[in-house]
Write the structure tokens for this entry.
Amino acid sequence: MLKVLILNTLFFFHPVHVTIITVTQARESDTLKVFFRMYYDDFLRDYKLYNPDFKPVKNIEPKDFPNELIKKYFDDRVQIYINHKLLSGSLSNVSTDSYEICLNLIYQSDKKPRNFKIRNQILIDIYNDQANMVYLNINKYEDAIKLTVEDFEEDRKLK
């Protein structure tokens, strides 16, 4: 009985392994806006895999990461395609606190997107229960996508 109680308690306190990406594009616009959020401690773990030479000091501060390093990490882990073309974006804002890191990115897209594809490999080499959520709002097409360790890529036809 005690073992069952301990196992259930451990499950209850198990951290959530999730990231969130919101992708928006207004009708007749060629600008795709992306908002990304993840836990800061998970970012440090995944960044260490991305850059094995990274040696975090104790209590590393978010300001210790230049924006260009964060952008390279994000580009390595997340690729966004519109109409089968890989988009290249710019990092417009980074905000952090002790718990989360949030990014705002801007991509030049197509005014008439017909197809959306995303590949998100953030944290999939660390947590086998990782969920990378994607919320789409492109030209009034709305959808939610759950990407996992096994299914880290999704292609959608936009209606």
The radius of gyration is 17 Å. The CA atoms of residues 31 and 108 lie 5 Å apart. The chain has three helices and ten strands. The mean pLDDT is 86.
